[in-house]
Specification:
By secondary structure, this protein is of the alpha+beta class. It is 45% helix and 17% strand. A hairpin with an 8-residue loop joins strand 9 and strand 10. Helix 2 packs antiparallel against helix 10 and helix 5 crosses helix 8. It binds one RNA strand through helix 1, helix 4, strand 6, strand 10 and strand 11.
Length: 499
RNA sequence: GUGGGAGUAGCUCAGCUGGUAGAGCGUCGGACUGUGGCUCCGAAUGUCGUGGGUUCAAAUCCCAUCUCCCACCCCA
């Protein structure tokens, strides 16, 4: 076994797990700019930040997102807490039944669970007889001591949980919150889709369901995108009715779909039964004509929903927001009612939605809170960044700011002392300073400065130390000047503020 | 979960129909012991994703597997 092979083996042992990635400088500067912009814009609309745990009880998501959705049924990272419960259980069981038996059972989970269950029933009896063992103790442990937890696949459920738990209905209504952070879904990665992905999330909870709230929320995202200079932004809106009119429409849709069942692909035939609305979303070329002819929900809204939808549109117009109505826009999550919207951007491949949102009036009540109106959106930050990067690429714009402003080239022990002092003061004044830790020849030091993209090199040698007049070199032009320390700070300060 | 494409140096890739590896860029050192970008010279880094098979011989052909990319399902 060669050394190289061993090294390689060692290195490939650890790698970022599928669908996760490292975000590195200078790209992270863009992430920060995006998040800072969000904070500024959202604050100007009266939103405050909420920071949430990244994991919650599984039941919260099952209830909020919908137990039947793919997200909950197969895409969540779910685990037991304490984590070793199951394995301890099986290990204990193995000691009682023997290794051979457990090996056999390992290939048949159903039987294994059945046996464990029987074992548990007997455990209570045996405990009464005074028989004790670690396994028995474990089996008799109250169920509440073991919880099923999940990494959050989205943020809305947690925000609602917090609203209830923190009694936010006592706050002035509505409560406007935003949050930024990672979400987790176990999906097959593709362009703009990761297993750990980031969302910028905003929610308006409580108060009325005035269409002005929905419209202003949309205005806020659009303003945010505009502030970032995001191009090719398109707003799609729709109303999917409420619990009065949607079920009727869904039945109507299903009936119509049954008539054309033969012309539908297998996916849509399945969706026809499970979630007919999703058929509208089909990308299959052969189904497009059929979908165009299907009844549209806008024509089947109840009076209240229709009035609400009309008013949202009027309010958007008042704000000068351009939108297109998209009857095929159906949100995937169970909790949405009435207004739904989605924003797409360019350069994103097939996952081109950067923001999705809508109203979810019933959710907080569903989670055990008081009846509460609510609306919100989630921005896919990874996709937003991707789109910004694509457009920067196509326009040939340089990426984020150079990192080093002043590179200190020093020679000699005395100069080093001065350099340390200078670095400290320059940094205190807010400059980004690179101070090489070991002596280098000036040629080498300037080469380093150049490679790091530094704007200036501060040259400190015996001459400078003796005279107190330091040499500042502007790398781009090669110009040099002699400056005292105070004049140096002054000079750089002026340069930075645009002279 | 399903389908397609791809894995060769840190990066981008070449290596045709089998004869145990190259370029450019980057990194480091030197020409250049108080001045960078240019140029020139030199160096380091690979059991060619991994395992198996065919063969005298495999980066190259076959099988399996892993990872990445793209798309479907689903969704931000």
């Amino acid at each position: 076994m060669s050394e190289g092979a061993a090294k390689k083996e060692e290195r490939r042992k650890f790698q970022a797990i599928r669908g996760t990635r490292d975000l590195l400088p200078p790209e992270t500067a863009l992430w920060n700019r995006v998040e800072e912009t969000a904070r500024e814009v959202f604050a100007s609309y009266g939103f405050g930040e909420i920071r949430l745990p990244v994991f919650e009880q599984t039941e919260l998501f099952a209830r909020a997102v919908g137990g039947e959705t793919d997200i909950v049924s197969k895409e969540m990272y779910t685990f037991q807490d304490p984590p070793e419960f199951t394995s301890r259980l099986i290990a204990g069981f193995a000691r009682e039944v023997g290794a051979e038996e457990i090996k056999r059972l390992a290939t048949n989970q159903a039987e294994l669970l059945q046996r464990l269950y029987e074992h548990k029933e007997r455990a209570a009896v045996r405990a009464k007889q005074g028989i004790r063992s670690p396994l028995l103790d474990l089996l008799l442990e109250p169920e509440e001591n073991v919880e099923s937890l999940s990494l959050r696949p989205e943020a809305t459920a947690s925000v609602c949980r917090a609203y209830i738990e923190e009694n936010m209905q006592q706050w002035p209504q509505p409560v406007k919150l935003y949050t930024v952070g990672p979400m987790f879904r176990r999906e097959r990665p593709q362009k703009g889709r990761y297993r750990q992905f980031y969302q910028i999330d905003a929610e308006v909870l409580g108060g009325s369901d005035a269409p002005g709230i929905d419209a202003e929320l949309i205005e806020m995202v659009m303003t945010f995108f505009e502030r970032l200079g995001l191009q090719g932004v398109q707003l799609h809106i729709n109303s999917i009715g409420d619990k009065n009119c949607r079920p009727k429409y869904v039945e109507l849709l299903r009936d119509e779909l049954r008539k054309v069942k033969d012309k539908l692909g297998p996916d849509s035939q399945r969706r026809m039964e499970t979630n007919p609305l999703r058929v509208l979303d089909s990308k299959l070329e052969s189904e497009q004509d059929i979908i165009e002819k299907l009844p549209r929900i806008a024509q089947h809204l109840c009076d209240a929903c229709r009035e609400n939808y009309d008013e949202v549109k009027r309010q958007l117009a008042l704000r000068g927001i351009v939108y297109s109505q998209n009857f095929r826009l159906v949100r995937g999550l169970d909790y949405y009612v009435r207004t739904t919207f989605e924003i797409t951007a360019k350069g994103l491949g097939s996952q081109n939605a950067v923001c999705g949102g809508g109203r979810y009036d019933g959710l907080i009540e569903l989670l055990g809170g008081p009846p509460t109106r609510a609306t919100g959106f989630a921005i896919g930050e990874d996709r937003l960044i991707l789109s910004l990067q694509e457009q920067a690429k196509s326009r040939g714009v340089a990426s984020e700011d150079p990192r080093v402003e002043v590179y200190i080239a020093w020679m000699g022990e005395k100069a080093y002392k001065t350099a340390i002092h200078a670095a400290k003061n320059l940094r205190a004044a807010g400059f980004s300073v690179e101070l090489p830790p070991v002596e280098q020849k000036f040629g080498k030091a300037l080469g380093q400065a150049d490679k790091l993209g530094a704007r200036y090199a501060l040259i400190l040698g015996d001459n400078e130390v003796a005279s107190g007049e330091w040499t500042l070199k502007t790398l781009a032009t090669g110009e040099q000047q002699k400056l005292s320390e105070s004049r140096l700070l002054d000079f750089l300060g002026k340069k930075r503020s645009g002279e």
